[in-house]
Write a structure and sequence with these properties.
Layout: H1 2-23, H2 31-44, H3 62-76, H4 82-87, H5 91-99
Length: 114
């Protein structure tokens, strides 16, 4: 199984490289941009997503947005508010938000006594 996933990853990287070479699409500049390109493509079931692609323009909707937000949190530990996806709908914009200091910090838990 792991080998199949590794093989799929290499194929996706080749796809990204081809997309950037042919269409003049800027390649992901950060690991977060690369992660989001992969997540956009997988969640939206498109061949590839570039850093300038908009989530909702590629076919995203509320359920796929929830899946994306969940994947970002699992991969980075950053909790992205749903509204942020509307404000930063591109891979580059969302990656910038995720990488910004203090983004998505969780408030400390408050113990409630009963």
């Amino acid at each position: 199984m792991r080998e199949a996933l590794r093989h799929q990853r290499y194929r996706y990287e080749d796809l990204l490289r081809d997309l950037h070479a042919v269409d003049g699409v800027p390649p992901p500049a950060t690991p977060t941009e690369e992660l989001l390109c992969v997540a956009f493509a997988e969640i939206l079931d498109v061949a590839a997503a570039g850093v300038e692609d908009r989530f909702f323009a590629l076919g995203g909707h509320s359920l796929s947005a929830t899946r994306l937000i969940s994947r970002i949190r699992a991969a980075t530990g950053v909790a992205v508010p749903f509204q942020t996806l509307f404000e930063q709908p591109t891979v580059a914009g969302l990656a910038g938000w995720v990488d910004a200091p203090g983004s998505g910090e969780q408030p400390s838990r408050v113990e409630v006594s009963t």
